[in-house]
Amino acid sequence: MKIISTKKLTYSEREQLMLQGISLIEHNFISIELVDFSVDTLADYLIFTSQNAVRSVLKNSQIEKIKQKKVLCVGEKTKQMLIEQGWQVIENAPYAQMLGTIIFQKYSEKSFTFFCGNLRSDTLLDLCRNVGINCTEIIVYHTQYTPLFIQEKTEGILFFSPSAIHSFLLKNTISNEKLFCIGETTAQALQVYGKNCIIANKPTIDSVIESVIQYFNENKNVRK
After folding, report:
1. pLDDT for position 222
2. Among residues 6, 43, 172, 201, which one has the fewest Cβ atoms lying within 10 Å of its Cβ?
């Protein structure tokens, strides 16, 4: 049995699949370019929703000033990276919508600087603006599509971001493959194309892999 991963996996991640008899076609369907940016003023708190944003901000000449601000973030790995680099993380949520709810409930009188990419989801900004919360975005990295046509027949596709979905569909189509997504936002992007998927229990790569293994083990008849 063969599946596609729209992101190159680590050796240990690939090994989990191979031990289950699942072979893999891998390609990074997006690439990330960190960009220079200026910081004139910072809000009360900072927001990060990706590790890429953290990496970019760490390269900024004003990093020591930026580190003085407390942070709200999305994702455990993003949180870990921020803490390792010396930030104080006061709130963390698995999804942007959940973080937005926390902001509305507990910090509606505060202002926020949101470090993000050029193709970031509208979820968090829209929520803040709709309820009058001051949230200013600063673009700190660019996401670029790197599509590749895949000719081989496969039985599953792994998606880790909406951008990777859009890139994949530039040169490929989805037919009867089983689709697996890392989270709600990615799943919603698939629904725009009329496709449903299995959403990982946690927004992590390991959880996506677990959902793949569980599905194909429970549906042996899918195997060739």
Report:
1. 44
2. 201
